[in-house]
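Re-run requested by the PI after the first attempt was lost when the workstation crashed. Everything re-entered from the original request form. Ligand of interest: uridine-5'-diphosphate-glucuronic acid.
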Amino acid sequence: MRITVLGSGYVGLVAGTCLSVLGNDVICLDLDELKIEKLRQAVLPIYEPGLDSNVAEMVKVGRLRFTSKYEEGVAHADIIFVAVGTPQAKNGAADLSFIRAAAAGVGRHLVKKSIIVIKSTVPVGTAHMVKEIVEGELASRQRTDVQFAVVSNPEFLREGNAIQDFMRPDRIVIGSDDAWAVEIMRRIYAPLSRNHDKLLVMSPRSAELTKYASNAMLATRISFMNELSRFAEAAGGNIEDVRRGIGEDSRIGRHFLYAGAGYGGSCFPKDVRALVSAGRSLGIDMSILAAVDTVNNQQKTILFEKIASFFASRGGLKGKTIAIWGLAFKPDTDDVREAPSLALIERLLSAGAQVRAYDPIAVHTAKTALGSTDLVTFCSSAYEALAGADALALVTEYREFRTPDFDRIAASLTEKAVFDGRNLYARADLEAAGLHYFDIGRGN
Ligand code: UGA
């Protein structure tokens, strides 16, 4: 099928590339000409394992092309996927200006029967809004004869695992009131839904809410565990045992129950707040989700509090140097948006400390996020970050941090303290190396 994907960000690039791998003829459209020029040479604006080689391969075989021109993109396609950003507006709501612009751009150039598929995470009612914008543009061009359907088809892929998640989805949500459009969506996703039907067909509004509900539920599980981890610390329990104890109940399940330094990224924080904000405008007090956000904001300070309390009896943090392992909000991505590492660094700097940071992938994005400062030194290896440091904080659980040389860590750190924000290590290993060890809720 002939497909155009609007927006070459995370979701758009992954979807466009995977759809071309599945045999479709795909154009990715983005108004950023520099980005498009680089993509033509298979230079990607984001880091995602395996994506660059797939892009290069699909460009080579001619099933993936890039353009910055709406005329070209819209004329090409029978199906137009909208995957533009929906960032957080100042009031916490989703900012729909890119969606509106995309809908208008499509409406201005639509010439044949098409499906407009909304892949971006959008508030309930957006498919309806897109339909009205496109109808308005068609009317002003006197082309109301052009038939089109708007389908809500949220994406559930995770950064760092995006290709696998796209190609092997747990479910495919299709929100549409048009039977002919559902049939075509069924055909597009047939290769991913072969052995059993993964398609869930519902109204556009239910599909839009399903996306927010998924992220909100996962964020709720994390905040729930983070809150319990504080309780466990105070009461003397071990949150990891509790996690196993509840996760084996098949009604609860094992996933997304890991207490840590708080959730970050471009999705959970933004989507939870957007749902709270949308509820407010409907007169619904989303008190559970407001609490999920509050708990997460508190959790992002937890490593700092532990570090500050350790150094309180050692002359305070002023003039101390803290090594940080991991800047990205999770492993295998260069994304630092809402990352717990940034919250920690800001607090450490305000308390007069300096930071030596290492991340295998996300240094360039962290540098941009933090702006120019002499107080943060970016290092090119995990052990280099320890040189001259007083303590180590582990914030992102990259594989390469899993089994470090604890004797070497102890020899490097002046105050011999490790703050483990992801419960990666066993206390006995660190204490055997003469290190002070602080984790999240495992009974300090
Ligand atoms: C999330 C969802 O998992 C995807 O299904 C969804 O498509 C995506 O948002 C989106 O809306 O685009 P992502 O933000 O890439 O994906 O990352 P996750 O793997 O979900 O992790 C989010 C955050 O939660 C990370 O900071 C991670 O460290 C934290 N987390 C995760 C925990 O603290 N504990 C856990 O048990 C799991």
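Saved to the shared folder this time. The longest helix spans residues 204-235.
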